[in-house]
Automatic annotation (TrEMBL):
It comes from endosymbiont of Riftia pachyptila. It is found in: Cytoplasm. GO terms for biological process: L-homocysteine biosynthetic process; one-carbon metabolic process; S-adenosylmethionine cycle. Pathway: Amino-acid biosynthesis; L-homocysteine biosynthesis; L-homocysteine from S-adenosyl-L-homocysteine: step 1/1. It holds the Pfam family AdoHcyase. This is Adenosylhomocysteinase. Belongs to the adenosylhomocysteinase family. It comes from the Bacteria. Its EC number is 3.13.2.1. NAD(+) binds at residues 155-157, 189, 218-225, 241, 297-299, 344, 351.
Amino acid sequence: MKNSINFDIKTPALVEQGKRRIEWAWQEMPVLHILTKRFIHQRPLKNIRISGCLHITTETANLARTLKAAGAEIVLCASNPLSTQDDVAAALVKHYKIPVYAIRSETTEQYYQHINVALDHQPVITMDDGADLVSEIHKSRPELIPEMIGGTEETTTGVIRLRAMATEGALQFPIIAVNDAMTKHLFDNRYGTGQSTLDGIIRATNVLLAGKTFTVVGYGWCGRGIAMRAKGHGAKVVVTEVDPLKALEASMDGYQVMPLIEASKISDFIITATGDKHVVDKHHMQVMKDGCILANSGHFNVEINIPALESLSMNQHRPRPSVDEYILTDGRKLRLLAEGRLVNLAAAEGHPSAVMDMSFANQVLCAVYLANLKSKGKPKLENTVHNVPSELDREVARLKLAAMAIDIDTLTPEQQHYLSSWQEGTL
């Protein structure tokens, strides 16, 4: 459905269902509750135009509600063609009056059209999940750059892209790497990705994990979470890595570590979480077990070399939603989940609301931080990728603990002095 004013969505009839699900998620997002109550009166984002290229989920809807309560003029588009929840998009438009340009299963052409419509909003702050918004500004919409205050980036893949831009001197406005906040990657990436990835795999396949050999490609924070949850389901977990430190850590965490070419011969599941391209490649597929299930939990659909898989196949069909079965020329079958896209969002609902509460609280606080730099006449940040200010990260943790009714100790003046001095030693 199109409207010349402010949206392009698929299913307006699902609006009430979307609202109910948004409100359900809201119950698990107490930090955003606190920030909404704080900022609805302060309005620190008044007249600040924000364009967000994010997964259009119930949790993102509540981020957008909080930003709007803080005064922001926000427009949303999707950061992945298969992650949009159409009922949520409809509810955002009708009930919350937030312009949305996102349709589940939209074509690549539609995807970039929607990004450019979101950029027609002339944002001064961007919110990205994968850096497609920032990339499109630099490639096609450079006229927007002079007014940009800055942007935020939600995911590892996007941070990698943006750091590459900064290294090459191509990045023309500052970005805050929300992904790298301690309250993001320690919890969202580990517990959120771990649970939601397994949720997506189980929903898509209904295959028992217990007793199966389950290979995790990449042992970053996301890979750690996936391995931990797979082990909890009774799977025999294998980890493959290119970083010797992470490989050593995986081994000491109790997992079997080996090259992917060896793991491919024994794996019932192979799940990627690297942020890199073609980590599962043709030579791996040529030795995989019959019936091996492949899935990706990294941002883009390039981690599994799908053209190589197609080149090895003589036939393909879809036995279940979100499952494509490729019949190879030698008769083996390999099963690809969610077309190689983010399995936790394409085959399930993404991260639980409780962890997105912290990630999106960081987004809100970083947007306010950027806006305050402009409103208070402070120097603009350097055109590079910045860490989330530590005081904001700790504020999110403090608010989350308070919402969970957890108290912690504080240092005494004597202890603070001891930690900041060097004179005292062995007595």
